[in-house]
Design goal:
single chain, mainly alpha, Helix Hairpins, about 0% strand
């Protein structure tokens, strides 16, 4: 009974925060990363235009440039910005 109550609270809280602050308030879903990795073995480096042998500092610099180009306020698209952010999250959590 407690687990069901916790799940309900989490769902309600997630729906509220998504509506209030925009979709994906808690971060990006991990599922798309798994699908992309199967297709592209160089992910996330390919999103930043780098090789797998690039250092962490090189990836960080490329990420910052990519975010500036892809940001919707700077003339980029939401889709491209989301891809860059997902690649960065994947890099931070799984690669480095």
């Amino acid at each position: 009974m407690k687990n069901l109550k916790k799940k309900k609270i989490k769902i309600i809280l997630t729906l509220y925060l998504d509506k209030r602050f925009g979709q994906g308030f808690f971060g990006f879903n991990e599922e798309p990363h798994r699908k992309i990795v199967k297709k592209d073995k160089d992910y996330p480096y390919s999103v930043f235009g780098l090789n797998r042998s690039a250092s962490d500092d090189d990836v960080k610099k490329a990420y910052r440039k990519s975010v500036m180009k892809a940001h919707p306020d700077k003339g980029g698209s939401n889709e491209l910005f989301r891809k860059v952010r997902e690649a960065w999250d994947y890099f931070k959590n799984y690669v480095s």
